[in-house]
Amino acid sequence: MNTPLFQRVAVIGLGLIGGSLAAAIRQQQLAVEVVAYDREADDLRAGVALGVIDTAETSVAAAVQGADLVVVAVPVRATEAVLAEIRPALSDQAILTDVGSTKASFVAAVEAVFGQLGPRVIPGHPIAGSEKSGVHAANPELFANHKVILTPAEGVDGASFERLKSLWEGCGARVLAMSVGYHDEVLAATSHLPHLIAFSLVDTLAGEDQNMDIFRYAAGGFRDFTRIAASDPVMWHDIFLSNRDAVLRVIDHFSRDLDQLRDAIEHQDGAMLLRVFSRAKAAREHFTKMLSGQAYVTDMNQKQVTFRMQPGGSMNGDIRVPGDKSISHRSIMLGALADGVTEVRGFLEGEDSLATLQAFRDMGVTIEGPDNGHVRIHGVGIDGLQAPRGPLYLGNSGTAMRLFAGLLAAQPFDTELTGDESLSRRPMGRVADPLRAMGAVIDTAEGGRPPLKIHGSQALTGIHYEMPVASAQVKSCLLLAGLYAEGATSVTEPAPTRDHTERMLEGFGYHVHRKGATSSVSGGGRLTASEIDVPADISSAAFFLVAASIAPESDLTLRHVGMNPTRVGVINILRLMGASIEVLNEREIGGEPVADLRVRSATLRGIDIPEDQVPLAIDEFPVLFVAAACAEGETVLRGAEELRVKESDRIQVMADGLAALGVESTVTADGIVIPGGQRLGGGTVDSHGDHRIAMSFAVASLRAEGEIVVNDCANVATSFPGFVELARETGIQIAAEGE
Ligand code: S3P
């Protein structure tokens, strides 16, 4: 039984929402007593008879008397009058909230009646409803798994906020907090405007045909689209009048866009229609996924996926892992900037590369797909991007943010680049500083972190840059900026890093001069559309290379794996450790070498990892640490401080995870020492939202002695959609919870 959060809850207005809240509070025993007042005595009587409330009161004041929570659940426009009746009876300690669809209007009504917004006034809005109305439709389950938005002011009393939040959570809802202004803008766009359009469309059509005969021929699309035109007219007239300013802004925006479509139809501008429709289709699909909690703009931190692995197993099969992430990002970028249509196959449909794809759609590029890894990009030319309407959200991807920074520095418009929590912590000074030296104007948040605000219309000049760290992202960023710069831009790297940008630029007919450790481009050229076959990602294959090496009786073949010499560090290192990896069918496809890999169980031994292999295996160290833990003898890694600024601090997070399984290691500033031959126990590991950490511990289970649970695994979808299924199919005893 719950300890009641409140003594006496007074609900003013016993309609669908007020009644459902009262019923939920009673059902969950969240208050000792629930009382209500409504202008309709019949509704009050029904409330008692239906068990929705304990007591019906005969006036607002009588209901509010002695209440420690007062919920205003009357139509928005009646709020001020009701507040005037509440005021004399309201205790100082009571929390006052509401359930209205517009929040600035509630705040204005409170200020009008009380003079100010006290610390215990917390506006609220449950995003739940039903076509039915009235207390007879009250349903204690109405809020289960729905969102409730609270819009506390700055000076809110924290304890009161927590209490109200707990009440809603007790009713099964998920509580979000945001500002009043933001709430009203968001609702104007996502709820109010669609209702207005539905009302207006049905009215227009009904008016065109007095007999309404037209509706007889209306198909499912019309029915779906106009369902909300059957909503309560009184309530909606209230909402529009109360949220006037925000609604007017989105109506104007929509009217402008509708006019543009009208013009496009009038002038037979098919390209414009295709652009808008394909962008909208992608947005809609991605919204559908979001609703089921899968899409790349899902706040991954709100979605909890847990991996649970049973110990042991062996790895067998013949598989192809998804497309290379680095190449997928670049294929969209160069395809968008090229003249002509670029066809991409084997594209990684992971959240990071999908975010890049969406960002280009937001800049006016028509992109069809992805459809089973097939993407068709209608390039707009090097100077054809258009200003996006808002910030470009790049999810979890450092690569996207750093490459975009170069590519956008010289555009004739401003842009803002944002990302998820992990990306928001990553250093961007490494690209912002050299770009500034070229003439770019870029603001970062404190410490050189995202968001990046890029001021467009800058004339860039080529520079020569000696990179202080071996980073393909920095190199690629500067080469992309170099396409727009006056003169030559050259970059020298302290050690070889992946060269996909250089290879792909050549594939698009843009010459890259390469000499030793230096690559350079001259600005002012154009790109020609190309065909790209994205190989399977060696970074994703790496989990299976280690898995089949450490698990007994394994024999696994990985097809079409990218074997770019700047990426094969993981194979070199595993072979030095004694792994059995055969490279078969080596071939070159679209400027990138690929091969099939056959890997069998082997007894691994610890090694000193050669430092020159570090940049060539930079993303594979988490799973190599697992190999090291299973090897005989000590493994030492040095010169890998870059690992500390990846999606997580991969040295510390791996050491902590291994420790949770009883595996010792010694963390150093730029690496780690892992004594081999250790027993892996079971345990619970926190992946810190890092996809590669999560997958590494899934691999570790093959040699563990107990169950391994890994928390915070949703981000695996950024680089490896379908990982769990493929891992299970080949021999890892894995289950994902919360997907
Ligand atoms: C990448 C470069 C590497 C790598 C990242 C992808 C790229 O980052 O870790 O996953 O696509 O250019 P750094 O350039 O920061 O080393």
Automatic annotation (TrEMBL):
Pfam family, one: PDH_C
Cross-referenced Gene3D superfamilies: 6-phosphogluconate dehydrogenase C-terminal like domain (1.10.3660.10), Enolpyruvate transferase domain (3.65.10.10), NAD(P)-binding Rossmann-like Domain (3.40.50.720)
Molecular function GO labels: 3-phosphoshikimate 1-carboxyvinyltransferase activity; prephenate dehydrogenase (NAD+) activity
Swiss-Prot/TrEMBL keywords: Amino-acid biosynthesis, Aromatic amino acid biosynthesis, Cytoplasm, Oxidoreductase, Transferase
Biological or metabolic pathway of the protein: Metabolic intermediate biosynthesis; chorismate biosynthesis; chorismate from D-erythrose 4-phosphate and phosphoenolpyruvate: step 6/7
Catalytic activity: 3-phosphoshikimate + phosphoenolpyruvate = 5-O-(1-carboxyvinyl)-3-phosphoshikimate + phosphate
Main location: cytoplasm
Residues the record marks as active site: D619
Endpoints of the signal sequence: none
Cell compartment(s), UniProt: Cytoplasm
Annotated SUPFAM superfamilies: 6-phosphogluconate dehydrogenase C-terminal domain-like, EPT/RTPC-like, NAD(P)-binding Rossmann-fold domains
Highest rank taxon of the organism: Bacteria
Binding residues annotated for phosphoenolpyruvate, in chain numbering: K325, G398, R426, Q473, R650, R692
Official protein name in the record: 3-phosphoshikimate 1-carboxyvinyltransferase
Gene (name only): aroA
